[in-house]
Each structure stands twice: as C-alpha cells, then as structure tokens.
Write a structure and sequence with these properties.
single chain; alpha+beta; D-amino Acid Aminotransferase, Chain A, domain 2; 2 domains; ten-stranded mixed β-sheet; 7 helices; binds pyridoxal-5'-phosphate
Length: 357
C-alpha cells in the first residue's frame, strides 16, 4: 500500500477554549480539546495527515459506516508527570489493536507510525489540556470509519481516521457490583468480540440497562453457547485471585477483547512472582470460591478505571459479597503500581511509556 509520509500539516485554532472548561468538574467524555488529528483514505492510499481545530464533520447521508457499521475505535489516556512531561501508556498496543480490529471488519489499516506520530504531535499541541492533577487525565479516542457514499453492502473503499481527546476526571472510583449475565450475549465464537467494533457496544446497552435496573454497575459476560464460562466484565477484562493464584479467562477464544491493562497486570504479576493462569474460567468455579471463601480478589482491568474492584457478584438472583477491599493484597498493590507508573513516579522498567517532554 502506498503511504503518504509527508509531514503532518497543522492548522491551529485561533483562540483556545481551555478557559471555558471547569477542570474541577469534568464529566466523562463531554469536553474536547482544541485540536484533532485527521486523515482520509481514498483511491487506494492514505491522504495527507493533518491536525486541525476540533470541529464537526460533514457526512453524506449514505455514509456506509452509519448503515453497515464499519466503525472501530481505541481508548487510551495521557497524564502529566510531576516534571511536566506528558506520558501515554503503551500507545503502540492501541495502534496494533486498531489494525487487528480493522482486519476483522474488512477495513483499511492505519500505518502504526502515523498513528503514533499523529498522537504525539496532537498532544504536543494540546499539552495544556493534560491536567497536572494526578486524578485527571486526557482521554484519547482514535477511531476509524467507512466513508463510502453508497447504500450497498461491501467493504468501503474510503475511510476516515481521527484522533480526538477529552479531559476527564477519575472514573469508577467506587467498588462495583456486577451481575453474571446468562441470557444475553456480547460475543459469539466466530463473531467480532475481539474487535473494538462500535456495534459490540451498541448491543451491550440493553442488557446493561436491565442489569442497572437491578442495581448492578457492570455485567460479567459469559460464553454465548453455554453461559457457563466467564468472558469479560462490561468494558473491562476480569481477573480473579483464588488460593493465591491469579486467574483470568484466556484469549484463545475470539470473543474477548485483548485488553492492554489486563496484559500489563499479568506481566507485572509474573515479574512479582505470582502464579498466573490464563485459561477458561467456569462460572461455577467462581461461585464456589465465593461461597467457600477462597475467592480473595476480583477486579476489572481497563483503561477507564485501570483497576475496578468488584465488591459483589450477582448470579441467578443471589448476591455474593466479596472480601473487604482493604484485605485485597494483589489488586491494591497492582493498582497503586500501575497508577504510579502512568504518572512517571516509578521507573519505566517495562519500557511502556510514550514520553512527550
Ligand atoms: C469490551 C472491553 N474489554 C476490555 C477492555 C479493556 O481494554 P484496555 O485495557 O485496553 O482498555 C475494554 C476497554 O477498552 C473493552 O471495551
């Protein structure tokens, strides 16, 4: 594929909107920084990469992403270190995962170097939008969608890739109650669960709404065929500790999103000498462990919350209370470690951070 490797052109905003933002009251995903990265694919090649003022898009009513859902995205965060450096956690993994999603959805891939250099330049330009408050961050949303103006089902020949950013406060600070879902399905084998495809999120809204009416904050998804294996937790991966062993559903199935936070947690755990098992995890095993007191820890892992403690698991109308948050050795330790890591408070021993000085 031909790639336009020209320098990124930059069109700056005339006047920043940053003064209009109340950084002490940041709802998730409602405010956006001054600029965005934009690049279009047409005629078999990527066009000029650009950074432009954040603005509305104009789309044709037949834009194929709207009709047939060729639309994928990523999510990551930038934070500010005490010395003023801007730090981004493992953005190369997001660039790779975007392209895995693109492959599954028959979309064009975004050259990894353009993803990363576009992100870097965007953050350099909008660096003031990254708060120095360690509880806040700049959420980064790269996304790719089909732009053929054609109402007919086929892989689009044109695409738009954008990166927008949004200042956000702390997320999911409270431990969550989750429900094991045994009726609805997020992803089936052979489907698109492993892709970060927009439609996966649309289809989860209804079962999540029903669970919320029962008082649960997230769903623990189970396998589509038997509903007897745990897969993931809402928009997080799920990790358990039973008898001092860290257990998480394996990614051998194509129904689980390969989370970057989870991968990092497991790499850290192995380095710390914990026993880690990635394997099919039965619902029955988790419920038994909750009943007999061997379930020491359970948490969701994802970019939004980093680590979200699970305080309660609901299954078939029964709620199982989990051990107190203070007693959870592993999740507390790894949460503090990753949070400090993302803020540059500890050495980048895994070589994970993008640093913008
Ligand atoms: C369905 C799903 N699973 C897991 C995750 C966690 O992935 P990551 O740690 O890369 O944010 C996310 C969030 O991105 C998600 O949407």
């Amino acid at each position: 594929m031909e790639i336009n490797m020209n320098k990124i052109t930059i069109e700056k905003i005339k006047e920043s909107r940053i003064q209009t933002i109340d950084f002490n009251n940041l709802p998730f995903g409602k405010h956006f920084s001054d600029h965005m990265f934009e690049m279009d694919f047409a005629d078999g090649k990527w066009g000029e990469p650009k950074i432009v003022p954040f603005r509305n898009l104009s789309v044709h009513p037949a834009t194929s992403a709207i009709h047939y859902g060729q639309s994928i995205f990523e999510g990551l965060k930038a934070q500010k270190a005490e010395n003023g450096d801007i730090l981004v956690f493992r953005p190369d993994m997001n660039a790779k995962r975007l392209n895995e999603s693109a492959k599954r959805m028959s979309m064009v891939e975004v050259p990894e170097d353009i993803f990363l250099s576009g992100l870097r330049e965007l953050l350099e330009l909008d660096k003031d939008w990254v708060s120095s408050n360690p509880d806040q961050s700049l959420y980064i949303r790269p996304f790719l969608f089909a732009t053929d103006e054609y109402v007919g089902i086929r892989p689009s020949e044109r695409y738009k890739f954008l990166i927008i950013t949004s200042p956000v406060g702390a997320y999911y600070s409270e431990p969550v109650a989750v429900k094991i879902e045994t009726k609805y399905t997020r992803a089936a084998e052979g489907g698109v669960g492993q892709a970060k495809a927009a439609g996966n999120y649309a289809s989860s809204l209804y079962p999540a709404k029903l669970a919320a009416e029962e008082g649960y904050r997230q769903l623990l998804w189970t396998d589509a065929k038997t509903h007897t294996y745990i897969e993931e937790a809402g928009t997080m991966n799920v990790i358990f500790v039973i008898n001092d062993t860290i257990i998480t559903p394996s990614e051998d199935t194509d129904t689980i999103l390969k989370g970057i936070t989870k991968r990092s947690v497991l790499e850290i755990a192995k380095k710390w000498g914990y026993k880690v098992e990635e394997r099919p995890v039965l619902v029955a095993e988790i419920i038994d462990a909750a009943k007999n007191g061997t379930l020491q820890d359970a948490f969701g892992a994802g970019t939004a919350a980093t680590i979200a403690h699970i305080r309660l698991i609901g299954f078939e109308g029964v709620n199982y209370e989990l051990p107190t948050i203070e007693s959870r050795e592993f999740s507390n330790r790894v949460k503090n470690y990753i949070e400090d890591y993302k803020l540059g408070k500890i050495e980048d021993e895994f070589n994970w951070m993008m640093v913008i000085s």
